[in-house]
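Sequence in, structure out.
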Amino acid sequence: MKMKKKWLVVAMATVMTVGQLLPTFVEAAKAPLEANENVVETTKQEAKTTAIPEFPQKATTFDELARESRTSYTIQSIDNAAVAYNSANKKFEHKLSGRVSNAGFFNLQPRTSTYSFNATYYFSNGAAPITVSLNKGALHAPEEVIVTGTEIFLAMTYFDNPASYAVATLDINGKRVSEKTAVFNTPTNVTPTITSDNQTVTVGDTFDPMKNVSATDFDGKPLTVRVKSSNVNTSQVGTYSVVYETTGKIQTVTKTITVTVVAPENRIIALDTFMLNESTAITGTYAGNISQVSLSVNGVEGFKQSVSNGNIQLTAVNTIKSKDDTVVVNAYDILGNLVDSKPLTVNEREQTGAITQLDNYMVKQDRYVTGRYSGDVALISLTINGVEQTRVSVTNGTINYYVWGLISNVSDTVVVNAYDKNGQILDRKSPVLTTYESVGSITKLDNFSVGADRYVTGNYAGDVARIGLEVNGTELGRIGVTGGAFQYYTPTAISSLGDTVWVNAYDSNNKLLDRKQVTLVDSARITKIDNYVVGADSRVNGTYTGDITHVRLEVNGILQARIPVVDGAFSYWARELITAPTDKVNVIAYDKTGVTVDTKPVTIAASTGSLTSNVFTLGDSRVTGTYTGSISRINIEVNGLTGGSIPVDGSGNFSYWIGNLGVASTSDVIYVIGTDIFGKEVLRQKVTINQGEAGTVSVNNFVLGSASVVSGTYSGDVTHIRLEVNGELQGRIPVSGGIISYWARDLITATTDNVRIIAYNGAGGIVAEETVTVVPR
């Protein structure tokens, strides 16, 4: 059997750590490989590995091989040493290919022994070499024929980083026979990529050289891009360049783009996104001589609105209804020509919402499922036992869904559904269903007046729905009640104070919640009315018994207002109602139902009383005395003229100041008048006036030009003096101690003046007069 044998040996060197070493892949290639310009031959001493063991130039493993052939087996050439990045496994792929040859061939005679060919890679990381043996000890039968010729070899392996060189060695049965060193080419597929496009901008626009610019390395990792150079001038029309640069793991690259600056044109530059149900205006910018803009929605154009300063502000309230509407903004020049149209992006905020609270629902008790929601919830429905009920609108965050008669058992499955305005479900939650234990009580029972009342009345609280009346052990019947109060009609069932009467309170299911006994009282009546004195009394007073709640007066056939009464007594204001002893007055009493239970007359009496006055002495300032009876005010009449009335204080004494009424003589006439509460005169009493003590005066001559005062003395009941000069009265002055001194220097100016001094008592009466003699100095 004959066959061609391939010997394959490769060693690689790279800057790697031992932990980064990956398994190698060795594969024989059939086709010749192109030579690589980076391949160089070196001696063992030039290889960048550890020392390679010495080995003779020919194989001598077997004596037979040595005797039959002295042929030298060598690595003829390394044709290719290439590095490329493999994006599939994110590694650097290293390929090394070459040829192994010999000068002749030999035949091995049949032998029982075997021999082997070894292939070894040497990888250098700058320190100790690492050896990996492939096919070591692979046995070949002695009868195989080794064919002379050239054999092609190919080695391929992967590293995290590219290797710089490789050493290929050929061993035969463990003996080194040949080696070659190859320098790897610069790796391929390792160029970074800068992504940027040529741009066109308008004069005056802002140019951002880094906008939409990015870079990635050969392995897909992002890189930082730098502007290496730029000559862009956005204020002048022209063509400019921007050079970008980035440095990757292996290489640094640049890229140049062209920036064209053009003159402005009449155009809409940009329109801001319109948010449905949130935005109220369309905003954006324009360039050129645009005068007006308009809005077209689904092909229908609205009115035009003026714009200025490059800004678009277009009112759009209630015009855009859906994010699916086709919306276009049209721009017009000053002549009304359409110069540009631009579509408007309409978005709608994602609707979100939640049911935040569901109150427990009491089966057969509550009429509504209630709770709270938040967010964009617009509709609420209930699904009961798999059947969805009507959706209803909700506002203000409150859920209030009417379900009376729909939920009948706590075992029902109830779900509250929350929808947005478009009918999209936002949330679902189930309320807790509970049963209700009714509670209630009778809070008040009014006394029942036997023979007068027709209703048993009272109040209740809680779940009371029916009231039953039980008389002497027999319940008469049950009536429905609402509003917290009840009245049970029973005109004849309760006939005696000895009856036993109970009120029973039931819920809507006739469950007894409470019962209380009714207090029976004698029939209501007025027991007493005090006599009423016209002009003296103000109120009609009296007492009553039984279930009387209100009374009123009837005066001369006219019914007056009702007033409430308590505690068995009443007091009705009547001063303005009863004005004469001849008035006909009744007190009418009513029970709580408004039924008249009693009527009694009021005895009316005329005003009575007495009035006395004390002796009045001229000079006194008050008239005093006593009174009794219906007199409520005192007045004074002097010489037919009256002063104002004053109220009495109830003590039986009065004191009336008359200092301003001018009582100066015993010939004056004074009356004391007593009036009742209406101002009607009850009694009149004449007051006795006493002269009191007389007075005298004595004056000195007045020396004109020397004296300043008129001087003298007085005695008796003198309290004031005054001068009279030539018939003209001067002012009064008080005196005391019996001395007269009246300033007169400016009053008496001639010896011919007629001067008198006049003396007055405390009442203002004249008690003495004296002429003053005026003499020269």
